[in-house]
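Next up, a chain.

===
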Amino acid sequence: MFLTYAGTRAVNLLHPARDLGPGFLREREAAGKSPGTVRLELAAVRLLYRALRWAGATSDDPFADARPARDSTAPWDKRQPYSEEELQALLVAATPETRAMLLLGAHAGLRVSELLALVWSDLDFGARVVRVRSGKGGKARRSVMSETLAQALRALGGEQSEQRLFSISGCCV
């Protein structure tokens, strides 16, 4: 994209104008490119100029101070969770172990690393609580266990011990 942009404007890549970076970004944004696409293209062209400087072809960096426009869409609006219907369709086709994993993520909010690290003693069926020993940032927390999740975990037939709930080969937790 950038080389096409530069070619149509007869830009000297080794001695670019000062406003090359911001001009390129504003044009990409005006063309309707998503904020993520613009940031990706900016990263690519910064790498191009880093390589040119490394090779000694130029000392210029027209993208050093170039900043893309802020994305007005909140991050949580971009990552829509599965709908209840989609989750139910997954659960119908899942093995008991996969069903428990899906529900630990969907109902208890556990990350993959957190659910893979669970041992049976982390589950309190009486209080309906799942204890996460080392969550994001190394922090411990507790999460509520729905009745559906409790049933799925009981179906695994585990015991109260330090044995992991899930044994996935080739996985490091």
User: Anything to note?
Assistant: The chain has eight helices and three strands. The mean pLDDT is 88. The two ends are 40 Å apart (CA to CA).
